[in-house]
Design a protein that fits this description.
Length: 174
């Protein structure tokens, strides 16, 4: 019994440096890579894509960043499948719970594509969770709800009430 207690205490002590190093500090950068999916509020189509992001912590818990998204979309009632993308600027506030870093924020950006896709601006509230597996690497999940500025766009026609974007990926702090 004593042996197990010593092993558990030793394992806990080894984890403390990883957890304490997981905290973001002003001046830290992060790079994120992920996969995402989206669906209109009526669930009558789909889109999947890849995401990349670069962020800078301007304060210990406040991050600004830029995100790039490329997607393949197939929506019922649309003029076939097409490729699209978006470029967004985001601001997120992180809560520090050691290895777990929940965050909430917003982004604004531009959505564009092919096959008669009408480009438009978008804005979205967002939230997510980062889980550090060591001092510099984390797994993250992000969900956002995009509102489109141009109500005449093909995107806005298919996503009349906005669209959900959900992303799962890996990130690196440096």
């Amino acid at each position: 019994m004593m042996r197990y207690s010593i092993l558990i205490a030793a394992a806990a002590l080894l984890l403390v440096p990883a957890i304490s190093n997981a905290q973001f500090k002003q001046g830290d950068w992060e790079l994120t890579l992920g996969g995402s999916g989206s669906s209109p509020s009526r669930l009558n189509g789909f889109s999947f894509g890849v995401d990349a992001g670069l962020g800078l912590f301007v304060a210990d818990q406040l991050e600004i960043g830029v995100r790039q998204h490329a997607a393949y979309t197939d929506l019922s009632g649309a003029s076939g499948a097409n490729w699209s993308g978006s470029t967004r600027v985001a601001v997120d506030f992180h809560l520090d719970f050691g290895a777990l870093q929940p965050f909430i924020g917003a982004n604004i950006g531009y959505v564009y594509g092919e096959n008669g896709f009408h480009d438009t601006w978008e804005a979205a509230p967002e939230g997510g969770l980062k889980w550090f597996v060591n001092g510099t690497t984390f797994i993250y999940g992000l969900i956002e709800y995009q509102f489109f500025f141009d109500s005449n766009s093909n995107v806005a026609e298919q996503f009349k009430d906005g669209q959900f974007i959900y992303t799962l990926g890996i990130g690196f702090k440096f």
